[in-house]
Every structure is written in C-alpha cells, then in structure tokens.
Amino acid sequence: MNRLALFDCDGTLVDSQANIYRAMEEAFGQAGLDLPDRNAIRRIVGLSLVEAVATLIPDAEPDLHVHLAQCYRDRFIEMRRSGGMAAEPLYDGIAETIEALDATGWVLGVATGKSDRGLHLLLDHHGLKHRFVTLQTADRHPSKPHPSMVEMAMAEAGATPETTVMIGDTSYDMAMAVAARAHPLGVSWGYHAPEELVAAGAIHVLDHASAIPDYLERT
C-alpha cells in the first residue's frame, strides 16, 4: 500500500488569515451584524463555511448561517477578481518539504475546508498542484472533523489508515484523522494551540515544516 501524507491547507500549507478575516468582516458588515473578534475567526478556520458561521453565531437561525456563508463566498470571489486579495504565502519550508516527501515516495494529498476553485487556484499560483495525487475539499464532503475527506483521499491514493498521516494545524484536522483511523500529526504554526492538537488526538506536534520528512521517515 502507498504511504499517504495528507495536508490541511489554511494554517498548514499557507497563511491565509488576512483574506479570511477580511472576507468575514465584509460578509458580516453586509448583513448588518457585528464582527466576531479576530481570535474567534481564527478558531473556525478549517471548518466548512456554514459550520464555521454557525460556530461564530450559534444562536442565529440556520437560514442566516447559510446566507452569511454565501456572502463570504461572494466577497472572496470579488476580492479575487478585483485583485484585492492579500498574498497567501506558503509557510517557511513547505515547498521544500513537499519536494522531499515526493522524492522519497510519499503520495501527497490535501484535505481542506476550501472550495475546489480556491484550492486549485492556490496550488496553481504556487506551482504545486502537480505534486498532489488527491485533493479533497468542502465542495464534496461534510465538514471536518467528519472522516469523509480522509477516507476518499486514501481510496484515491491507494493507501490505508495504517499508511496515512493527516498533517494539520487545528483540532478539527486531528479529530478527522482519528475518526478515519489515520495518524494525526499536528503543526504549531497555524490556528490552534499545540495542547489543543494533542487533546484532539495528535501523536506529535512539529514546530517547523522542515521537520516533517525526517519525522515521517522515523515513524
């Protein structure tokens, strides 16, 4: 069976916080609602949009959750069209890490709360899409921490839970891996604290992308 290294995107591969915050700010403003604080918004990164909005304003009606999620999508698309998006840079060492894992026979994938369109544009921008065999997004799956993304990625990559590592920065990523019986590997440079990742099931938390290849070869 193939060895699969499955990456989260926002907070793991790229720093997208500025764009997420701005789109959320404009969506809430359009609806005439007060914006949740920045830390609350950081904590919902990784969830699918409706679930993210519902976490931010749990007492609102479900129709409002859906409406705000659509407003967010519309603002993101408009920001992209107008050139108003801030850069979503790769975290330090990510490009080299992906190259190293690819060279040593790991099959690579992404499991993200982004849309198909957003993920493809991002990977094309960074010249990385050809490295990934399987791309799983919120467009075709329930929100994390449901195991569907990991399960489909394993099926497409020819991997098993025993040969799959889910690499992510949030407790949602770790819980998703646990639910799929894969190995949850946390990273500390994203949006949830290391102790939260461990509490959600992380077998280890790494502090820099460059440590990922050596760690995976040793375990």
Structure characterization notes:
- Strands 3-2-1-4-5-6 form a 6-stranded parallel β-sheet, sandwiched between helices.
- It has helices at about 15-30, 40-45, 50-55, 60-80, 95-105, 115-125, 150-155, 170-180, 195-200, 210-219, and strands at about 1-5, 105-110, 130-135, 160-170, 185, 205.
- It is built from 10 helices and 6 strands; from the N terminus they run βαααααβαβαβαβαβα.
- The two termini are about 15 Å apart.
- About 45% of the residues lie in helices and about 15% in strands.
- Helix 6 (about 115-125) links the parallel strand 2 (about 105-110) and strand 3 (about 130-135).
- The longest helix has 21 residues, at about 60-80.
- It is globular.
- The chain is α/β, with parallel strands linked by helices and about 220 residues long.
- Helix 1 packs across helix 4 and helix 3 crosses helix 4 (about 60-80).
Strand tally: 6
What class do helices, strands and sheet pairing give? alpha/beta
Spatial order of the strands in the main sheet?
3-2-1-4-5-6
| Rg for CA atoms | 17 Å
Percent helix: 40-55%
What would the principal axes of the Cα set say about the shape? globular
In DSSP terms (H or I, runs of 4 or more residues), the helix count works out at 10
Note the main sheet: 6 strands, parallel
- What distance lies between the first and last C-alpha atoms, to the nearest angstrom? 16 Å
The helix/strand order is EHHHHHEHEHEHEHEH
* Strand residue content: 15-25%
Low-confidence stretches: none
Average pLDDT, to the nearest integer? 95
